[in-house]
Each structure stands twice: as C-alpha cells, then as structure tokens.
Write a structure and sequence with these properties.
mainly alpha; globular
C-alpha cells in the first residue's frame, strides 16, 4: 500500500512539473513590489497612455505581460491614432515570436514565445487598415519572407503611394517589369482580379498605373480604380483617391473639394491619416521637385 502511495505521489509530482513546463510564466520582475503594483494599476486605469506605457515597461524587461497591456491599449477608447501603435506592436511580437529587447543581456532572459502568424497578421492588418505606415512595411517584409509575392507587392505599393516614391526609386519595377508586350504574371493576376470587381486588386492596379510600375503610367485610370474600390468601402481606395485628387497628376486636375469627400469617408473608418491635420500636409508639394 505504501509502495502504491509513493508511486502515485511521484506521478503527481512529475505531472506538476510537466504542467509547469508547459506554462509561459512571467520572469521574476526586477521592479520592487510596490512599483510593480503601481505599474499594473496604471495599466488598468482605462486610458491608452496607462496601458501602453505599462506594456512598454514590461517589454523593456522582457516580460510577456506586455502583450496583455498592448491589447488593452489597442482597445482603449476614445479611439485615436495612438491605438494603431499598440496594434503594430502586437503584430510585430506575434509574427516574430519575440519581444523587442530579447537580445539584451543585462535584463531578464527573453521568454519563450510561440510565434503566431494568424495573430500577427491580424494585428498588423488592423494597424495598416487604420493608417499606420509602419505596418505597411512590416506586412511587406513578412509576406516576402513567407514567399507570398502578391501580398508583399500590395503593401510595397501602398507604402510607395503614401511616401510619394517615384517608380524609379521604389525598387519595384524590376520585380514586376513587363517583358516586351507581356505584362508580369503578378500584374496580369491583379488585372484579372480587378476586372472581376475585387476592391483590393483595384487599389493595387491603381497604384501600378499611378506610378507607372509594370504598366504605362495612367493617373486618370488609377483614380477611376481607386474610386471604384472606395465605393465598395475599401479604405485605401478612399484614401488614395483623396491623395491623387489633392495632389493632382497628369490627366488628374487638383480638386481639393473632391479630395475632402474621399478623405472624410476614409477617416470614418478610423484611417487616421485621412484626418485634415494629416492629409493637408500629405497633399502639399514635396520640398524638392525633380522633373521627369
């Protein structure tokens, strides 16, 4: 009887060890208990600043509790452009499976996080669709590393239009350049999907045409495609229609009133760069203008 009891106790101990090994526990905090308590209270005060500052502090110490506070910050109300900073941070963490300071030798050892592409993509897309330009670059890089050239191109194009890159400096023409009279397969696929009514592909095709990447430059046709996508509710169609009308281009007369209409529709979808304080600067002529 004692032998069986001892064996059961040993099995229970092993089970406890196994469960402990499967859990992701926060590392011991270098903060004094009182300071840690104050930090957590600030993180749950309902404000974006409290949650985001707490998340950043935990991340600086390689503490996975940062994730929960970034989620609080992303959901904080009233919604502002600051929320996208938390969304972008969550996308970065889940795609990479690491905290920002994982390689720092003078703080807690980095926790073992399991990367989650599904979560990372969802948070990065939320940030991008709310206007966070850092998320454009994050997504382009992440899709490229996964071998998804079509989606990588999409976010490269969005970054190019937002940043006003000329096609010759974007690094894209070689990737989707036409060969003789034959367009690149990626471009041909975008054309087919846009013709079938896909709003995202219409924005992609509009960006290619606006900048003359892989196709002859045609800003007027690009505007039509942006507007068509915008009418379907695509926030990038709305925002890019506003940019093109606000900036003007060959074949597109500058029309601030029409641009204001499209920016207002994008802002209504929490696309923060469509707010007047941002778009009015975005449509100003660049400081340096080079003739083509």
């Amino acid at each position: 009887m004692q032998h069986r009891t001892g064996r059961n106790a040993a099995l229970a101990a092993l089970l406890c060890l196994g469960l402990a090994a499967c859990q992701t526990l926060p590392p011991p905090s270098p903060l004094p208990p009182a300071q840690l308590q104050g930090l957590e209270q600030r993180g749950t005060d309902g404000s974006f600043e409290g949650a985001f500052d707490t998340a950043q502090t935990f991340e600086r110490f390689n503490d996975p509790r940062a994730i929960a506070y970034y989620e609080r910050a992303a959901a904080a109300t009233p919604w502002t452009f600051h929320n996208t900073r938390a969304e972008e941070a969550l996308g970065r963490i889940w795609i990479s499976g690491t905290l920002r300071y994982a390689d720092s030798p003078h703080i807690n050892p980095a926790p073992v996080l399991r990367a989650s592409w599904r979560r990372g993509e969802r948070w990065s897309l939320a940030a991008a669709n709310h206007g966070n330009p850092y998320a454009f670059f994050d997504l382009a890089k992440a899709y490229r590393e996964r071998g998804d050239a079509q989606r990588a191109l999409r976010w490269d194009l969005r970054a190019m239009v937002y940043q006003r890159y000329a096609s010759s400096s974007s690094g894209l023409p070689g990737a989707v350049a036409a060969t003789g009279d034959t367009v690149h397969p990626l471009v041909a696929r975008i054309q087919r999907r846009a013709a079938a009514g896909d709003a995202g592909a219409q924005v992609d095709l509009g960006a290619l045409l606006e900048k003359g990447v892989g196709l002859p430059r045609d800003p007027a046709r690009a505007l039509q495609l942006y507007q068509r996508a915008g009418e379907q509710g695509n926030v990038f169609g709305q925002y890019f229609a506003g940019l093109l009308l606000g900036r003007g281009a060959p074949g597109v007369e500058k029309d601030t009133d029409a641009a204001t209409h499209w920016f207002a529709r994008a802002e209504a979808q929490h696309f923060y760069m469509a707010a007047p304080s941002y778009w009015k600067k975005a449509v100003e002529p660049p400081f340096f203008i080079f003739s083509e």
